[in-house]
Structure formats: C-alpha cells, structure tokens
Amino acid sequence: MLSVSGIHAMRLKPVARQSLSDAVFDQLSQEIVHGRMRPGAPLPSERALCDMLDVNRGAVREALKRLSQAGLISIQHGGGTRVLDFKQTASLDLLTRLLFRSDGTIDLRVARSVMEMRAAMAPDIARLAATRRSDEQAQQLAEIVASMAGLQHDLLALQGLALQFWDLLVLGSDNIAYQLAFNSLRLTYDRLREALVEVMGEELRDLAAYRSITDAVRRGDEAAAGRVARALMQEGSRGVLQLLAAIEESSGNDAPDNDEEEEDDDDDRA
Asked: Count of CB atoms within 10 A of residue 122's CB?
C-alpha cells in the first residue's frame, strides 16, 4: 500500500475537463520521469487517482494503459500497479518528456545526451547513405545545399534546411533503426531549435562541409562522408556543450539528481 506521506508527496492536481486521459497521463508520467515516484513504488488505486485528479475511471484506465505501453509502469492483474525503472524499460519516445522538468526548465543532462547521440549517429548515417542512397536523393541533397548558399545570414532558415538535409540522409541510409531513432531525436531537438540556433551558427554556416558530404554521397565514398559528417557535428556540439557547461556553472552546477531530490523529500517527511 502507498503510505499517506507518499501520497502527499505526489504533486498531482485536478485536471481540465478536455482530453482527460491525456492530462492524467501527462501528470503521472511527470511524477515518474522526474523521480517523485521511485521504481518499485506502488501507484494509488484507480479510485484514489480518480479522487485526486477529479476525473472518471475511464480516463484513469486509459492513462494507465498508455503508461504501461510507454514502459513506465507494470500493471499486475490482482497485484496492483508499480513504477518501473524507465531507464531500463522505456524507449527513445520518452526523450522529449525528459528534456523539460515539471517547472519548465531544461534538464541539462538530457540536453547533453541528445547532442552526444546526434554526434554519434550522424557519421554512420552519412556513411550508409553514400552506398545506399538513390540518384534522386543525391540530387535533392545538392538542391538543399544550393539553397543554403543563398541564406548564409539567416540562421533560422539555414537550420530548417540543415534538418531537411539530415532527414534526407537518414532516408538514404535505408536503416530503419536509425530512421526511428532519428524521428525521436528530431522531436526532442525541435523543442530546442530556437534556443540553440545561435550557438550552432558555425555548423549551420559551414557550407563547404555540406557540399563535401553531398559530393562524397554522390561518389559513394563512405569514408569521406563519415569523416566530414563527424567533423561537422563536432562544430555544432562544441558550441552547445560549452553553453550547457556555462549554464551549469552559473546555476551552481546541475540540479540535484532525482534520487537526491527524493532523499531530501524523505528526510523532510521523517
């Protein structure tokens, strides 16, 4: 059974009357991913959740079903519902939810992870595209780069074209795992685009690199495509990682770990 103190520690509130199951899912998933409910902890009963959130049982059941599908909880018939360790059970679809804390601030560790994953994937995507792309895709890459040449002073426009460039390379890689991972990464990155556009200016304006990748892909030169893509990603990542480090330093380093926050809460309740 969930203790009374445990129930009071949850930061749930009545939800609006529209999209009830979505609102329930949002609140409960925030409780889990930001550590206010630890792995192994039992969820309140459906009836208790209905009372706490002021919603009907159908909305709660639908939300619990989605939480289970997302790898956040385990529903045991007759044995209650428990929180799972999402780091071991969830998928990349959770990245966007993890990126922003419940107070709206960015989780710097998640943002860093996104940039690191982006830098790791890009060279291999370019390498595969060099041998698997279609002639039409190669031509489209060249057209995107030609458009970028006339927009060197418009970073937002360059950013949009760069995303199209990588969308096309991912398709050209003909690797379904990369395509699905890129979709999740793209959804998360889209939430940061405007905030990052200035610090990624060096990467976005590196027209020579985009041309070199395009030429390598057209020639089928795997090594060159991967090498230039790696260098290009390092340009953008360097600026972003420096920004994240500066934010951490100015705010007294990272916010406490979820576990540390929970331990503090436990101490306060003791």
From this structure: 24
| pLDDT at position 258 over 50 | no
Alpha carbon distance 203, 232 (integer Å): 6
pLDDT > 70? residue 259: no
Phi, psi of 187 (to 5 degrees): -60, -40
Do the beta carbons of residue 41 and residue 6 sit within 8 Å? yes
Q: What is the DSSP letter of 256?
A: P
Q: Which 3 state secondary structure label does DSSP give 238?
A: helix
Pair 171, 179: CB distance under 8 Å: yes
d(CA 201, CA 31): 36
Q: Quote the tokens at residue 240.
A: 């972003």
Residues 6 or more apart in contact with residue 112 via CB below 8 angstroms: 241, 244
Determine the Cα angle at 183 with ends 195 and 22, to 5°: 80
List, for residues 85-118, the tens digit of each pLDDT value.
988 998 888 887 788 776 777 788 888 888 888 8
In angstroms, the CA 229 to CA 225 distance is 6
User: With contact defined as beta carbons under 8 Å apart, do 72 and 29 qualify?
Assistant: yes
Which domains are seen in the chain, by residue range?
4-88 (1.10.10.10), 106-250 (1.20.120.530)
- Flag whether the pTM goes above 0.90: no
3-class DSSP state for residue 85?
Answer: coil
How far apart are alpha carbons 104 and 16 in whole angstroms?
Answer: 19
Which residues 6+ apart lie within 8 Å of 215 measured at CB? Answer: none
Q: Which two tokens stand for residue 217?
A: 């892909």
pLDDT in the model for residue 10: 58
Average pLDDT over residues 222-250: 87
